[in-house]
Write a structure and sequence with these properties.
Layout (H helix, E strand, L loop, with lengths): L1 H12 L7 E8 L2 E6 L2 E6 L8 E6 L4 E5 L2 E5 L7 E2 L7 E4 L8 E6 L2 E7 L6 E3 L1 H6 L8 E7 L2 E15 L2 E11 L7 E3 L1 H4 L3 E5 L2 E5 L3
Parallel strand pairs: 10-15, 11-14
Antiparallel strand pairs: 1-2, 1-7, 2-3, 4-5, 5-6, 8-17, 9-10, 9-13, 12-13, 13-14, 16-17
């Protein structure tokens, strides 16, 4: 009897298996229908499926879920069949806006800034007001000339101590500061993107750390 009791206790205390695949199928006000590892689950906000998927919030436009401590926003346009097995690398998933652009909030030298992914930009690119707000030291930066849509312009080249996007943090990242108000939003260029792995999945851009 003692062995049986111990076995039952072990089963009760064993952690539930973490869901592997999650996809949004439908939205019903504050409820959502999810497909979890091939099984359909209808959850209300705050409920958790047997596979450990919690519906944090739902509306007419999206469902916010939490799996294994990670949150992800799903829409019917991009339901995102996500993999939730224990990841060995940090991962960031970006949804496209109405123009197909991928934007995100990042941290530059510990200060927050909005960025837009631009694979055509050689480095991370700031306009002058943003650089000043972030406290970037342009006195030690290298003056350069850059080609823009309006012609040749003055700019500065410098190295950022750190750039963080989600759980991905890189050090010593090259950047360019333009002399005026261009670009309107900071561009997340190849000095960062070339150091991570990128993949598109059903319209979602996935960035993964390499270490």
């Amino acid at each position: 009897m003692q062995k049986i009791a111990s076995l039952l206790l072990s089963v009760l205390l064993a952690p539930a298996a973490l869901a592997q695949d999650v996809q949004l199928k439908a939205l019903f006000g504050t409820s959502a229908m999810l497909e979890v590892d091939g099984k359909q689950r209808v959850l209300r906000a705050g409920q958790t499926s047997p596979e450990g998927v919690q519906l944090v919030e739902a509306s007419a436009g999206y469902a916010l879920i939490r799996v294994g401590g990670r949150q992800q926003r799903l829409t019917l346009e991009a339901p995102v069949a996500a993999r939730y097995e224990q990841a060995s690398r940090a991962e960031v998933r970006l949804m496209p806006d109405s123009r197909g652009h991928y934007s995100t909030s990042g941290w530059v030298n510990g200060r927050r800034v909005n960025m837009m992914v631009d694979t055509g930009a050689t480095s991370i690119a700031f306009n002058y007001p943003t650089a000043r707000r972030l406290g970037l030291n342009l006195e030690r930066a290298q003056p350069i000339r850059v080609s823009t849509a309006s012609g040749i312009a003055s700019a500065y080249r410098l190295t950022l101590d750190s750039v963080t996007i989600g759980g991905i943090k890189l050090h010593n990242v090259d950047a360019t500061v333009h002399g005026g108000d261009f670009p309107e939003i900071t561009l997340l260029g190849n000095s960062f993107l070339s150091r991570v792995d990128m993949q598109q999945q059903r319209g979602v851009l996935i960035l993964r750390a390499r270490n």
